[in-house]
Amino acid sequence: MIVRDFQTKSKKFLLNVSKAKELIVDCSKKQERHYQPVRISGTTVERVDSFRYLGVHISQDLSWSRHTNSLAKKARQRLYHLRRLRDFRLPSKVLRNFYTCTIESILTGNITVWFGNSTKQDRQALQRVVRSAERISHTELPDLQTIYYKQCQTKARRIVKDPTHPNNRLFSLLRSGKCFRSLKTKTERLKRSFFPQAIRALNQGN
Questions:
Q1: d(Cα 79, Cα 76) in Å, to the nearest integer?
Q2: pLDDT by residue (tens digit) across 160-201?
Q3: Can you give the residue ranges of the Alkylated DNA repair protein AlkB homologue 8 N-terminal domain (predicted)?
């Protein structure tokens, strides 16, 4: 087992099994499979159906409803403070800056990871928070789809400029030298994931 082998080879590595979690991601459409539990040093690792990693809730079916629900809840709580600032008659520019720093930053955290494969309902729930902030601040705010594409473009350009990046080879120019070659995708999940979307965003920006 990889974990046990790594723990054996690393003299300074100590794994706290009580805090470790096992998350099985199986996208197969075949009948449900049964997996043996992972045991480390005689202790069974707890199996979970979702796990929060670097602020992102990852579910075993790779759906993002749990994550977007968490984002919407946090962002709605911040709307209270935005209303309080409005009641103090602060200028719209200040309200917009507050929104960008405390609400938009929540809604768009790691957006290139999950937004592409989020459902229409999840996106609408998040966008309703943006519209509420617009009504409170009396100013136009960027929609999440626009922010998503811009962040895809930004991250993709960094990868293209870095020949040492492990995924640099995915961005290959066509003979024209103006557009990047689209990636072949067999599933809708892959089509809506970061790299195909990033290439599409780059080509639209050219």
A1: 5
A2: 999 999 999 999 999 999 999 999 999 999 999 999 999 999
A3: 64-105
